[in-house]
Specification:
Elements (H helix, E strand, L loop, with lengths): L2 H29 L5 H23 L4 H9 L1 E12 L4 E9 L6 E8 L13 E7 L2 E7 L8
Antiparallel strand pairs: 1-2, 1-4, 2-3, 4-5
Length: 149
């Protein structure tokens, strides 16, 4: 999960919502029909919830580069040779890559691994990957399912 992108999305929705509230309180509310205040408030709260949900969904999407690599990359696998926890969110992985049609190669990536899923990235485990055919430095790790399970 990309916490930084989600935080930016929540902040943007909050700023837009404050602007909407100012416009509503200063211009729309005084001109509204009597007795419609509860419906207006319900609409404002529901609108905020929907906007927040959509913003978080969009923020949690893969980047454009990751989507391009998932679509056009060559499928292969990587064997975890070493795993070192950097901090609570990040782990450095030494990987041995095997991609059909090219020589095996080694690489190191830093990946966000929740502590409860660390066992899936222990040395010896095999992970599916997508590799850019023209640049083996561009790798997309697909940890949703390991081939050892």
């Amino acid at each position: 999960m990309n916490h930084e992108r989600i935080l930016r999305a929540v902040a943007a929705v909050a700023v837009v919502y404050v602007i909407v509230l100012v416009i509503w309180a200063g211009w729309l509310r005084p001109r509204a029909e009597p007795g419609t205040l509860p419906y207006q408030l319900m609409f404002l709260v529901a609108g905020f919830a929907v906007a927040l949900g959509i913003a978080m969904l969009v923020a949690n999407r893969r980047t454009a580069e990751q989507r391009r690599l998932a679509k056009n990359g060559v499928e292969g696998w990587a064997t975890v040779e070493a795993s070192r926890r950097i901090d609570d969110d990040s782990t450095e992985l030494d990987l041995a890559f095997t991609v059909p049609g090219s020589a095996p190669f080694a690489g190191r990536i830093v990946y966000s691994i929740p502590p409860d899923e660390a066992s899936r990235f222990e040395p010896g485990r095999t992970l599916p990957v997508m590799v850019d055919p023209s640049d083996h430095h561009k790798v997309l790790l697909l940890p949703g399912k390991t081939s050892d399970e």
